[in-house]
Automatic annotation (TrEMBL):
<feature type="domain" description="Cupin type-2">
    <location>
        <begin position="48"/>
        <end position="115"/>
    </location>
</feature>
<dbReference type="InterPro" id="IPR011051">
    <property type="entry name" value="RmlC_Cupin_sf"/>
</dbReference>
<protein>
    <submittedName>
        <fullName>Cupin</fullName>
    </submittedName>
</protein>
<dbReference type="Pfam" id="PF07883">
    <property type="entry name" value="Cupin_2"/>
</dbReference>
<dbReference type="InterPro" id="IPR053146">
    <property type="entry name" value="QDO-like"/>
</dbReference>
<dbReference type="InterPro" id="IPR013096">
    <property type="entry name" value="Cupin_2"/>
</dbReference>
<dbReference type="InterPro" id="IPR014710">
    <property type="entry name" value="RmlC-like_jellyroll"/>
</dbReference>
Length: 166
């Protein structure tokens, strides 16, 4: 039997241009927190990722599922050591615990949706990145000390968010 409806949970309509959207600059990318774990009772989060040419995170893994839908451009995913170029219109799923990374090597900007289940990645990104004014805002100009601090904080918090850098 399924539980009764919970009327305290409202309908969520997400749009990256909504003035309430939080934008995070992280590793040269801009992430829009479209649907947060707070809104889904921790079930999942949905993040729009704008990845400039050359952008992307270092190799890592985590114990939750991660699904990407490429909306514009193309992204090169490295999954368990093998490279896969994924183009607009395609969706890929990264199984929990699998080593992976992605990089925009296309020469043009790319945009994708990332869904993580359960949620938590949204909170992690908010804690380690820098809030920016909008989807087209330039990343902050960080000093070498500030970059070192961001890397330290990302490494320090990774295990709390069930992630590991490789």
């Amino acid at each position: 039997m399924i539980p009764d409806d919970d009327p305290s949970r409202p309908l969520t309509v997400a749009h990256p241009d909504d003035p309430g959207t939080t934008y995070i600059s992280l590793v040269g990318n801009t992430y829009a927190m479209l649907v947060t774990g707070e809104q889904t009772n921790g079930r999942y989060c949905l993040i729009e990722m704008r990845v400039p040419d050359g952008g992307g995170p270092p190799p890592h893994r985590h114990d939750f599922e991660e699904m990407f839908t490429i909306l514009e451009g193309e992204i090169e995913f490295t999954f368990r050591g093998d490279k896969h170029t994924v183009r607009a219109g395609s969706t890929i799923n990264i199984p929990a615990n699998a080593p992976h990374s992605f990089r925009n090597a296309s020469g043009a900007p790319a945009r994708m949706l990332c869904m993580c289940t359960p949620a938590g990645q949204d909170e992690y990104f908010t804690r380690i990145g820098d809030i920016v004014a909008g989807k087209d805002a330039p990343p902050p100009q960080l000093s070498q000390d500030e970059l070192t601090e961001r890397r330290r904080r990302a490494a320090e918090l990774a295990s709390a968010y069930r992630s590991e850098f490789l």
